[in-house]
Design a protein that fits this description.
CATH superfamily: Ammonium transporter AmtB like domains
Structural class: mainly alpha
Helix content: 55-70%
Radius of gyration: 22 Å
CATH architecture: Orthogonal Bundle
Number of domains: 1
Shape: globular
Largest sheet: 2 strands, antiparallel
Number of helices: 14
């Protein structure tokens, strides 16, 4: 009888231990967060970029976001996840084709298969962001191959160093949701490809007007919505840190809009809707690495400065560098991402500050991680694009195709049939 009572006494403890292993609340939240982030690429980014390109290239531009998500998903489950989150120092191994992962495998308190899906949406949007620098002149076939190779060769290793346990190249950086991993990485990649491709043939010679600011604003709104999953989901738990990330993501995006429009009005006496949409994205990019550590004050400053930095990059610095970054992927994601990564060390909320935090040490860690990302992404992207171009007989479309527009020449379609 005594043994029976002893077993009964252990039942609540066993149940508690089981709950601690797989948390249904965390799992439910991460299912939703993953769906949020999925919406960002083939819907949000596609509309955001599609509205800013010219009418003859709208479908091609949107198609690059669509194919980036499809190809990115495939290569992620085949090998990308293994490189990023497998065992190993420089790169991960052991989970090729998701080997050894079953419906019972856990990542923290959620199913590992769900974690695979969540992280796969990050890989897909990263290469889709880079597409904004090369639109209107890159071959669609080249971009398809580039997407697959870039995720495996560039994105996955950098992810491993930051998040996947790669100790040698992990400098102790704070990157909660992808400041270096996604935004600086993608921004630099796009900039490098834009330099290799060269300028569009009428760049600087004729007015290049956006197809539809309406689509761009709608796309920005969808990106804003999806970013709640991007940032708050990166906690991989339904807890207070996720709630904090959710709130400050919204605050920073709002301040990004305000910051961009303020300086735009000061310079040009106009407050454009494309500017406001771009400001929202800049605020979101800026807060991404700090979304797990900043508070309200930090979010206000980070978002506001992010909007200003994005505007100055697009309107001033871009002219100095004289690189045809078609949709300003580097300036809105790369440059603002650099600001956000540095600001992460500067604006840590007292209630989220680690006990051993030292500003100088953390700031140096952020700078080292930024430098590594820029150098590796720049060099490796150039190699990947060279290989992709070689396999497709050159990476740039011919002059006739560029003049006609890639929608009809490549896809046989028009964005609007009147």
């Amino acid at each position: 009888m005594k043994n029976i009572f002893a077993l009964l006494a252990l039942l609540p403890i066993s149940a508690f231990a089981e709950d601690a292993k797989l948390n249904s609340g965390d799992t439910a939240w991460m299912l939703v967060a993953t769906a949020f982030v999925m919406l960002m690429t083939p819907a949000g980014l596609a509309l955001f970029y599609g509205g800013m390109t010219r009418s003859k290239n709208v479908l091609n531009t949107m198609g690059m976001s669509l194919i980036a998500f499809a190809v990115g998903t495939l290569v992620w489950v085949l090998a990308g996840y293994s490189i990023a989150f497998g065992d190993g120092d420089m790169i991960g191994t052991g989970k090729i084709f998701l080997s050894g992962i079953t419906d019972q495998s856990l990542s923290g308190t959620i199913p590992e298969l769900l974690f695979v899906a969540f992280q796969g949406t990050f890989a897909a949007i990263a290469v889709a962001i880079a597409s904004g620098s090369m639109i209107e002149r890159v071959k669609f076939s080249t971009f398809v191959i580039f997407s697959a190779l870039w995720i495996l060769v560039v994105y996955a290793p950098i992810t491993h160093w930051a998040w996947g346990g790669g100790e040698t190249l992990n400098f102790g950086e704070m990157d909660f949701a992808g400041g270096t991993v996604v935004h600086i990485n993608a921004g630099v990649a796009g900039f490098v490809v834009a330099m290799i491709l060269g300028k569009r043939r009428d760049y600087g010679k004729a007015a290049i007007k956006p197809f539809s600011p309406v689509l761009t604003v709608l796309g920005a709104a969808l990106l804003w919505f999806g970013w709640f999953g991007f940032n708050a989901g990166s906690e991989v738990a339904a807890d207070g840190v996720a709630g904090n990330a959710f709130l400050i993501t919204n605050v920073a995006a709002s301040l990004g809009v305000i910051g961009w429009l303020l300086v735009e009005y000061l310079f040009y006496k106009k407050a454009t809707l494309i500017g406001g949409a771009s400001g929202a994205v800049a605020g979101l990019v800026a807060i991404t690495p700090a979304s797990g550590s900043a508070g309200i004050t930090g979010a206000i400053i980070i978002g506001l400065v992010g909007g200003v930095v994005g505007f100055l990059g697009v309107t001033k610095l871009k002219k100095i560098f004289n690189v045809d970054d078609s949709l300003d992927a580097f300036w809105v994601h790369g440059l603002v991402g650099i600001w956000g990564s540095i600001a992460t060390a500067l604006f840590i909320a007292p209630y989220l500050m680690p006990e051993d935090f030292a500003l100088g040490t953390q700031l140096m860690a952020q700078i080292k991680a930024i430098g590594l990302t820029i150098i590796y992404s720049g060099i490796a992207t150039a190699v990947v694009f060279f290989i992709s171009s070689l396999l497709t007989g050159g990476g740039r479309v011919d002059e006739e195709t560029e003049q006609m527009g890639l929608d009809e020449a490549t896809h046989g379609e028009k964005s609007i049939n009147l």
